[in-house]
Write a structure and sequence with these properties.
Order of helices and strands: HEEEEEEEE
Number of helices: 1
Strand order of the largest sheet: 1-2-3-4-5
Oligomer: single chain
Helix content: 25-40%
Radius of gyration: 25 Å
Structural class: alpha+beta
């Protein structure tokens, strides 16, 4: 009888520990996925911001962004439905982010785009982005 009671109590303890492990493991993987998504958004944003800073001219025709760094160096962003492709010197990077509501504002003095406004969508969350390009006089 004592062995039977001990086995039942041990079974309850092991079952509780297994349930705790399952819940903890699920929460860990959800948090890890969220962090990976955030990392991809930050990489995209930082690269775009750095590219805009380096550019001497900025144009944004429909669903693309073209930046001229110098006479031989052009950076191009193509915005597709579910991802963004960045091309520089025949090297392409793909970002798994969805871009919505891309707008640009032209500088009155230069006629070039100087404000890029967009929304980044990832896992049903929206991240607004505004990047300002200042042209030297």
């Amino acid at each position: 009888m004592e062995i039977l009671v001990t086995m039942v109590i041990s079974g309850i303890v092991v079952l509780t520990a297994f349930q705790f492990y399952t819940v903890f493991n699920k929460m860990f993987f959800q948090k890890n996925k969220t962090m990976e998504d955030g990392k991809e958004i930050m990489q995209f944003y930082n690269l775009l911001k750095d590219d805009v800073y380096l550019a001497i001219s900025l144009h944004s025709p429909m669903n693309e962004l073209i930046m001229k760094v110098n006479d031989a160096d052009i950076i191009r962003y193509d915005f597709f439905d579910e991802y963004v492709v960045r091309t520089r010197n025949s090297v392409a990077d793909t970002f798994d982010v969805k871009i919505r509501n891309i707008n640009s504002v032209k500088d009155r003095l230069t006629g070039l785009d100087n404000i890029i406004n967009m929304e980044i969508l990832k896992n049903n969350e929206t991240f607004p982005v505004i990047i300002v390009k200042t042209y030297s006089n």
